[in-house]
Amino acid sequence: MSGWTPDTFSRFITRSGGSVAPFWECDKGEYVLFPGFCDVHVHFREPGFSYKETIATGSAAAARGGYTAVCAMPNLDPVPDSAGTLAVQREIIRRDARVHVYPYGAITAGEKGERLAEMEAMAPYVAAFSDDGRGVQSEDMMRAAMVKAKSLGKIIAAHCEDNALLDGGYIHAGDYARAHGHRGIPSESEWRQIERDLRLARETGCAYHVCHISTRESVALIRRAKAEGVDVTCETAPHYLLLDENDMQEDGRFKMNPPLRAKEDREALLEGLCDGTVDMIATDHAPHSEPEKSRGLAGSAMGVVGLETAFPMLYTYLVRPGVITLEKLVALLAENPRRRFGIPIGEDFSVWELSRPYTVDPAAFASRGRATPFAGRRAYGSCRLTVCDGRVVYQSGQ
């Protein structure tokens, strides 16, 4: 790739009038330059579960996917719920991260929902607060968390799931579950808790962010709350935009939480993406070991990887068919998440080749996780170079 020098980004900024432009074509259109993508929802599993992923392998996967900033969820061991436990994770990030990794602090101690974590002590060092992996079941606890987060100027990023409605389910309670004898998770388990939290956000004035929405009711609730002036944003993931229960197979790589929903839910998410209700796309990159994902739908762990397939899948199946523009996709992946979470861009960008198709091969991933519902899919969009803070952190072929 000739012609790429350290002042490439400076020229990019100059051409864009001093701000980050959506993209810049160069080399007669063969390559495209994007600002570094930002994923506000990843699981890097370290400390505590490094056999699934590490800060080193997760950040390498991020760099390979064009991401230069990610926010790492706190379902770890130890859970980052105090300055001391957070320091363990921060030291590993300092030592091993290839891109910017911003940790979340837990909302409650141990993510157990019984008492608030040491939010004030962690606030200077975390992107936001979340108990991701489980919903905060107590309304009083969530209200207290929002009041505290508001006082600290921090976002509450909520995994919305009402445990009382789960009934042992592990995929969507829809046609596929009924036809194949699986226990289903109802959509209400998600949107009921979003409904509660929106009411609390309205009451407290807290900045509230909803993680990985998957249902049409969730979209409608958030759209209405935004119109009413509630300080709310939300994310969804590539698999909820591109797949639904009709794409399911009896394979653990189709099992995640929340699950793939009905076609009508996917269509509502796409509508929300187009009208601005859905603010950003996050991967919910959640790697597991091969044995944990090889036990079918009933027995496999919940979670799929996504950092290395997000842009290619979204570009191939949303931009190329004309569902959204390339500028819109870059806003969803880079600009909007940075703006909401206050994450700077710096000298961060990636270079992509968009014209040559290939087949998604999990064996080539930098992540330790291999479970993706997009394995074997045809894709356009190959990351050739990623630069973070002016340093090359990924280059194709090296």
Which features characterize this protein?
398 residues; alpha/beta; TIM Barrel; 5-stranded antiparallel beta sheet; 4-stranded parallel beta sheet; disordered N terminus
Overview of this protein structure:
With 398 residues, the protein is an alpha/beta fold. The chain has a single domain (8-395), classed as TIM Barrel (Alpha-Beta Barrel). It has 13 helices and 14 strands. The protein has helices at 8-15, 55-64, 83-96, 119-122, 139-152, 175-180, 188-204, 216-227, 238-242, 263-275, 296-299, 310-319, 326-341; strands spanning 24-26, 31-35, 37-42, 67-72, 100-103, 155-158, 171-172, 184-185, 207-210, 232-236, 280-281, 349-359, 378-388, 391-395. The chain has a five-stranded antiparallel beta sheet. A four-stranded parallel beta sheet has the order 6-9-10-11. Helix 3 (83-96) links the parallel strand 4 and strand 5 (100-103).
Q: Return the domain count.
A: 1
**Helix run count:** 13
Number of strands: 14
Give the neighbour order of strands across the main sheet: 1-2-12-13-14
Beta content comes to 15-25%
The computed structural class is alpha/beta
Radius of gyration computed on alpha carbons? 20 Å
Topology:
Elements: H1 8-15, E1 24-26, E2 31-35, E3 37-42, H2 55-64, E4 67-72, H3 83-96, E5 100-103, H4 119-122, H5 139-152, E6 155-158, E7 171-172, H6 175-180, E8 184-185, H7 188-204, E9 207-210, H8 216-227, E10 232-236, H9 238-242, H10 263-275, E11 280-281, H11 296-299, H12 310-319, H13 326-341, E12 349-359, E13 378-388, E14 391-395
Helix pairs in contact: 5-7, 7-8, 8-10
